Amino acid sequence: MGESVFTEMTELARRTGAVNLGQGVPELDGPRPLLEEVAAAVLAGANQYPPAYGFPALREAVAAHQRRRYGLEYAPQGEVLVTTGATEAIAAALMALCDPGDEVLAFDPCYDAYPAVARFAGARLVPVPLAEENAGENAGDTPGFALDLDALRAAVTGRTRVLILNSPHNPTGKVFTAAELAAIAKLCRERDLTVVTDEVYEHLVYDDATHRTIAALPGMRERTLTISSAGKTFNVTGWKVGWVCGPARLVAAVAAAKQFLTYASGTPYQEALARALGGVEEWAGELRRTLRRNRDLLSEGLTRAGLRPYRAEAGYFLQADIRAWGHADGVRFCRELPLRAGVVAIPTSAFLLAPDAPSHLVRFSFCRREKSVVEAVEKLIAAA
Ligand SMILES: *Cc1c(COP(=O)(O)O)cnc(C)c1O
Question: Does the beta carbon of 85 sit less than 6 angstroms from any atom of ligand 1?
């Protein structure tokens, strides 16, 4: 595992002074009362190891959140585990569930940690390409991504142990539909697969899209580990507080792996988040409005610049097609873009695993200040 393209592009942004729409680091801060609670908790002495499963009040708040939003019951004692971000939850889940030689399915493109942690677990990540819709250069409708059920079926073998689902999805901004989730769930029941579902963007869904959790479908709660985190929801990506919910037998296995990864972390953050999670809807509504406006500005600007944007219903990111600028290779395009336009993006190929995957897409992030998005868009239009 070499230096990632993320490091390269961040360095390029620093060196050239380009507007960085590469990495998904929010430029905006978290809610002020939450920040003040953490400061108070630190000064009040919440500075030693929390319990291995996490601060009890946070586990209760997570269970209440799952009940309120999805109608799912989890026992705060035994069915909820607090982790060092969603990343540790995913890593510990794969270590807990996989034996060497097992196969893990993930939709391609996918979050770059998945193949890496599958390897740590001795397993192999098998990419299942998402189908592109309306992607022809002259197609009139907005392009997007869809489940390719035949490709998913064909990818399941006798060694397949886990399916990683990420909805809302990074890097595409896709929200899996009710019909897609039902089809995935049916296959997982038929082939006895465990689902690890990464829902860190569960609150950042725009327009008419609805986030649904696969754990709520018939027969799925018992075979699903649901993972989320405070980072994206509260604009506090540096805190690294995540959680996993599932049946006690699966959560216990994740906890067994987690105890030797970090044991436990983030005591003052956990204390403050335990109180904040109850009022998350109000804060998330505000954050959604900000992000949706940024997405619209970016999408309209990319259209004007001739970089055809894909549909992004959720999250921080938007895909754009670079072919109208005479480019076919996203990596070369992203290396040139800071010099040509003063903007940094990330080639979508950094998230693609299939050897024959398309390379004409790049990812722009809109979790930045409106000012940065507007500046980037003006530069892209000027350079078009
Ligand atoms: C940002 C992100 C994560 C990481 O979450 P942390 O809580 O910071 O570990 C996991 N999955 C996806 C899809 C992400 O975009």
Answer: yes
Domains belonging to the chain, first-starting first, are 5-24+281-383 (3.90.1150.10), 33-277 (3.40.640.10)
Global confidence as pTM: 0.96
- pLDDT tens track for 160-181: 999 999 999 999 999 999 999 9
Residue 127 to residue 357: CA distance in whole angstroms: 10
pLDDT digits (tens, 9 = 90+) for 20-40: 999 888 999 999 999 999 999
Q: Verify whether ligand 1 is closer than 6 Å to residue 198 (CB atom).
A: yes
Distance 376 CA to ligand 1 centre (A): 25
* Contact of 252 with 38, CB cutoff 8 Å: no
User: Residues, the chain, total?
Assistant: 384
| pLDDT tens sequence across 96-123 | 999 999 999 999 999 999 999 999 999 9
How far is it, in rounded angstroms, from Cα 135 to Cα 141? 9
Looking at the DSSP bridge assignments, the partners of residue 58 are: none
